[in-house]
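Minutes, project check-in
Item: structure for the 617-residue chain
Input as provided by the requester:
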Amino acid sequence: MINELALIVFTPLLAGVLAWLLNVRGLREAIGVIGAAVPLAYAAMLHEKAAQGLSFALNLGVFNMTFALSQLSWFFLGIAALVGFSAVLGLVSTARGSYEWLFALMSLTGAFGVFLANDLMTFFIFWEIMTFASFMMVLRYNRQASLKYFVLSIVGAYAMLIAIAFIYVKVGSFDFSAVRSAFIGDAYARMFGSATFSSGELMALFGLFLVAFGVKAGLFPLHVWAPDAYSETNQSYTAMFSGVLSKTGIYGFIMMYILMGTRLMVEFGMFRSAPKFGYIIAFLGGLTIIVGGLLAALQEDIRKLFAYSSISQVGYILVGIGVGTALSMQAALFHALSHALFKGLFFLIVATIVYRTGKTTFADMGGLAEKMPFTFAMAFVAILSLAGIPPLVGFASKWVLFEAVISQNLPILGGMVFFGSAIGFVYLIRFTYAVWFGQRPTDLDDTKDAPLPLAVAMAILALFNVVLGIAPGLVARELNRIFGRDIIGGNLFVLDLGFGKYNALAILTYLIMGIAIAGLIYLLGARARKVPVTDTYQSGNPVTMEYNLTIRRNFFLPLKEALSGWLRISFDRTYRDIGAWVEDFGEVMRNYIYNGNVQSYAWYLLLILLILAIWGV
């Protein structure tokens, strides 16, 4: 009998290869959907087995690939399987050919392999499979965006490989349990005597893993690949890119805590109530929230808006991980789930808009709620969830995170988190009005609503946004199972942190009553105020053609002007400059050292031998 973990990991890859080889329209879509449905079904069936543990090893001769199912890996597996399946359903409508089916499903196999890996080498191999497949998806649409993603991914991959190799040299094993035991033992050795890992070596390991996982998660300032990669590929696939692949970076940070967190804490100590190394992650996460949110507000393209928004929301998760308490870790995991659900839904909504209208900028949109009522309803759910409006799942996860940060008396991080929520309202208001309401361009008068596969995909994620928001206890129960004890108390509808409670059912009841009262007032004859077309937001400036601010054009131009000094600081440009310097240096080396002259190479050899002789080698 084939092991369940093997089926979960390799079924999408097998389905992708078959879809690519057969390349028959209709058949390839069916194979692709089955390839994503099988892991989802098995993940659901293995829910109870996660507590018992399940393992699988694949002998490759040189070494074994080992996989294991735990409560933590099941949680991430469930996120990946659900959002991955929804994204694949979207691809039924938007995929251009078998090429996309091959690499989209290969990405899913890579993510599953990362979440289920039980040793560092298996983790790295599937990390690279996932990275290669996602690179190929971006390459299909935009070469420049794919190269930027490729270069930063290579930097992250080498950083991870160096760290893994160094750990193997010191520990003698890739196995997670052996590595964790070695670091815990080394922590005790450090407290009572000499240790295997020096302070400098631990700093280097932490820095390498910070780069490796930070690139994939979109951590500031390693985020520069994400806006272009997310926006310049199939938007149905971007639901997987943002909702699933970014979570491998989050999972990597959590695994770093599990494997070497104790040793890092003993070596570097605490800052206030957080580990010093964790505070670095949390602070960078807070900067990610702010930078991503502000840049999202300044975008004129809805794809770029939600790309930067996705980066910003990942910052919340990193803050929770960095604070390092049991509650903040649960908050981070909770928001990882929320982010996957509402961001996956948002990108499927964007995929539908682009598929039906061919438009991507605010200036070309308006009044789509009338033509696309179902998609608008899905967008309304996603907007409420991302904005943190109860009783959607986004509010529950953000509330737990706010409480976790505040309870640890970390005011700077708390301010960053609250600022992120405020700026989130800003860009969501514009998306709501500019795309769905107002005057509709005449070329959008014949726009149709979402095709069936995209509609089903959106409905699945919207349903989970609502259900897990009304019944957040379902998520809390899974999080408590991961930790083996009750961190978040309460029941199905109530979250009880000991110093604060959230009752989703009560909020829902009050909300329904409020809507009913508002509807009654409207039906009894409330008068609506008509606003003239010329009544536009101008931020105190005169209405001119040169400075014309509407919800669809230059809406945040004053904000852009206020931030102009900061916007001149560009890590994207910095990385390009570094790349140019490296290229110039390589050209100099080629011209003056690697010049093909045998006589020059002889002199180099003589110089090396002379140096070795002086050193006494």
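Outcome recorded: The CA atoms of residues 536 and 550 lie 6 Å apart.
No further action items on this chain.
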